[in-house]
Design a protein that fits this description.
- With 240 residues, the protein is α/β, with parallel strands linked by helices.
- The protein has a single domain, classed as Rossmann fold, CATH 3.40.50.
- Helix content is 35%, strand content 27%.
- The chain contains 9 helices and 11 strands.
- A hairpin with a 2-residue loop joins β10 and β11.
- The chain is globular, with a radius of gyration of 17 Å.
Length: 240
Amino acid sequence: MGIGVRLVQDKIPTHIEGFDDLLGGGIPKGHIVLLSGSPGTMKSSVAYNILHQNALANKMRGAFFSLEQSRENLLKQMNSLGLMQKDVEGQLNIVDMSLIRKKLSEIRSEGSILDLFKLYADNLNEQEGCDLLVVDSLTVLMIIAQIKDNRDQIFHLFEWLRSMNVTVFLVSESPREPNQVFDEEFLADGVIHLVKERVGTVDTQLRIIIEKMRATDHHRGFFNLAFKDGHFKISQIISE
């Protein structure tokens, strides 16, 4: 099991050292959680790490649907972090949906892109079973499926995700403006936000906050987030 991780019944550990303590042991099973933030805040890496570590330590089956980069590039990135795909062979599936973007006009002529995504996910869940699902990213899925401004479609997408009876992590590109709230944040059970904060004149720190987590008495402040010695960990913010 990961460093400092204690498995709590009906919770999915994030395997971020110190972070699961803020969540009372982890993410409640069956939740739909947004991992939001601006580009470069390691959202994909955090999401993949949750799947990888739970496959390795807890034998949970995961599926990572990548709409932004190829399977090859994703694995190259994760292997560079020490998250070796060979260690979770058969437990963690990576579905390269970036091919949809390369053949967008062809696929649109055959049917709905959103329906195709659902078909892939349903088939994988039925044939191999799935405990954890990552969509990277919800932003791209909404754009290519043309549902960005359709609240009914967003609502039905979330209802379909709930019907799968898995714990879902949706990566979301959402640079945060003051008092700005998106429809998907209302629909999600949890929102974890990552941000790059300038420190001094030349440095930045990556920070993480639990903005929302239903059925959990969670901490509500920012923490530093770092990846070191093969794992993520949080620490208190000492100085601004």
